[in-house]
Amino acid sequence: MGLAPAPQKLALAKAGGNLTVTQGGRKTTTAALALGPDHYFEDVALTAKRVKTNIGVIRDPGHAEPWIIAMSAKPSYLKTLDYSNRWGIEPMFSDFKSRGFGIEHSQIQHPDRLARLILVMALALYWAVSTGMWDQAKNPLPVEKKLQPVSPKRSHEESCPGSHAESDAPSDSSQKPSRSHNSG
Known about the structure:
This protein is of the alpha+beta class. The protein is about 35% helix and about 15% strand. It has 7 helices and 5 strands; from the N terminus they run H-E-E-H-E-E-E-H-H-H-H-H. Residues about 1-15 and about 155-184 have low confidence and may be disordered.
């Protein structure tokens, strides 16, 4: 199965909730669509330019906000998931093109040279993001220092005998019963 065409620029309901949608002559917003009972909308006019598109909404348990995905394909659950998977790479493409690296202005003609440039840009982007994340963790801004760190809850597996967390703990045989198995 090939990659789906790049999704149109429409993000989470929180960010895209103010986009105007016209469906069947009725105006509403993308947030109102996401909160309604339906999940898939065909042939809607999006924004003031009335761009015709289809919209899929995914409301997964455990996620605070729904995903609102504009797409050219007929929306369904699997098709909306397929389009949503593209969001992981779309920001990188944008960084490579117009938001920083300007690859379109490189004038490189040879595919092998372009491939090497993309590799170097990907490594540079990875280094920049990792360095920023490291700096944020080591040197938080005053506002970030005020936030209480959230300690992760211990999972059931971490507290089970024989788990990695259990094996790192000091052993006290007087408190733990012996578990021996006879092989019969």
